[in-house]
Q: What sequence folds into this?
């Protein structure tokens, strides 16, 4: 294809996006659109899968059967969400194995929040309330994104996520209505998860290199800072109902702007964790890599069995 | 790994009386495993009463580049629609 032809196709493509038309896998798309989507969708999928690890750790230690079935169902959902997203990325021409390879070698990132440890039961509450809460805000904004398979996966995920946040909040509500020690445990979890949750929205708009292009392609509908503000504004009253304090002395209602002002995020910490120096980066990757490697013989055996059955069927028919 | 698991497309009938609709895809070694995985992945909240799975390689899809010749001819055949025909207002039940 000549450069002029590509330019022409690009112009048609941009018009389609501007008209809010959806792009489907076999449609022509600029190579950069394809690559950006592969990167974002696969990293989103990796986040779902790695996100199972901090919580899976608590399934056997959940304090009641009610909590245990709920947590099991939540972790199972996250596995499913990973699968919807991997499938959406696969429609763009990357294989599942390539994506795993990118995760395992560190070429692909996942959400940094999962590099923090879940050390008490209250952390499971805080993860549901804050981490899933932040994820929902990001994901609702994506339900209307331009790439059809990604948008469809997001719609299904958003429908399933709201139970995740509610189960987390209920855990904290129970602790906050319990003994002083239980309430202190809830406060401690909020202290540790608040700032990393704000970091989930990514760098400030001024430092976010992909924002402008992503907004143009409707891969993003709102900027990082807008989404972060929305999260803070809706979460502060929820903390008040729990009766615990958000660990930010600068947090206060701005009556002129009708939103909360908040303190400075520790961006050094953010970049340290992104670069692999968070508390659990190594542990998470070791868990993923060993699950993949130790499961290889099972995958091979299942494939060999299926091929043997198929041969038997063919032999019988002939 | 010796060989990657093939890709399957999943279609779910959400209730009797409705058609099967494409829900998504997954990897499985054979049809039976594809059905079992589809049940776990796509019907955890009563989304369906029946599942079809078909290996993706068996689906032949039209190409968007051919959309012009495939679908545009229908656009100027407005006489295929009932509103094309001019009939008096007093005519009923038609």
A:
């Amino acid at each position: 294809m000549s450069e002029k032809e590509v330019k022409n196709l690009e112009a048609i493509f941009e018009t389609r996006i501007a008209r809010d038309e959806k792009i489907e896998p076999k449609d022509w798309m600029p190579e950069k659109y394809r690559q950006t989507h592969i990167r974002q969708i696969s990293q989103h999928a990796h986040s779902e899968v790695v996100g199972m690890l901090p919580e899976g750790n608590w399934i056997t230690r959940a304090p009641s059967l009610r909590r245990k079935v709920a947590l099991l169902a939540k972790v199972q959902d996250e596995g499913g969400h990973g699968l919807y997203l991997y499938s959406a990325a696969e429609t763009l021409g990357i294989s599942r194995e390539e994506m795993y390879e990118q995760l395992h070698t560190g070429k692909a990132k996942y959400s940094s929040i999962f590099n923090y440890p879940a050390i008490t039961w209250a952390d499971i509450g805080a993860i549901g309330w804050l981490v899933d809460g932040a994820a929902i805000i990001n994901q609702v904004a994506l339900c209307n994104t331009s790439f059809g398979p990604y948008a469809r996966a997001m719609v299904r995920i958003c429908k399933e996520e709201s139970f995740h946040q509610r189960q987390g909040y209920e855990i904290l509500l129970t602790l906050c209505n319990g003994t002083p020690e239980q309430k202190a445990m809830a406060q401690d979890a909020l202290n540790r998860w608040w700032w990393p949750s704000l970091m989930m929205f990514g760098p400030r708009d001024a430092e976010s290199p992909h924002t402008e292009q992503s907004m143009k392609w409707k891969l993003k509908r709102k900027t990082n800072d807008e989404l972060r503000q929305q999260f803070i504004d809706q979460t502060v009253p929820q903390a008040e109902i729990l009766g615990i304090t958000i660990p930010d002395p600068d947090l206060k209602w701005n009556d002129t702007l009708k939103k909360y002002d908040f303190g400075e995020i520790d961006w050094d910490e953010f970049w340290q964790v992104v670069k692999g120096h968070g508390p659990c980066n190594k542990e998470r990757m070791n868990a993923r890599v060993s699950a993949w490697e130790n499961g290889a013989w099972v995958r091979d055996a299942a494939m060999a069995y299926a091929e043997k059955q198929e041969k038997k069927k063919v032999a019988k028919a002939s | 790994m010796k060989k990657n698991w093939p890709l399957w497309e999943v279609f779910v009938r959400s209730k009797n009386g409705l058609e099967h609709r494409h829900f998504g895809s997954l990897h499985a070694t054979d049809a039976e495993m594809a059905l079992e995985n589809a049940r776990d992945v796509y019907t955890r909240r009563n989304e369906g009463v029946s599942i079809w799975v078909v290996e993706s390689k068996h689906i032949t899809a039209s190409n968007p580049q051919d959309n012009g010749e495939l679908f545009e001819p229908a656009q100027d055949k407005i006489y295929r629609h009932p509103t094309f025909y001019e009939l008096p207002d007093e005519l009923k039940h038609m």
User: Anything to note?
Assistant: Chain A touches chain B through 29 residues (CB under 8 Å). The longest strand of chain A covers residues 252-254. The first helix of chain A runs from residue 3 to 18.
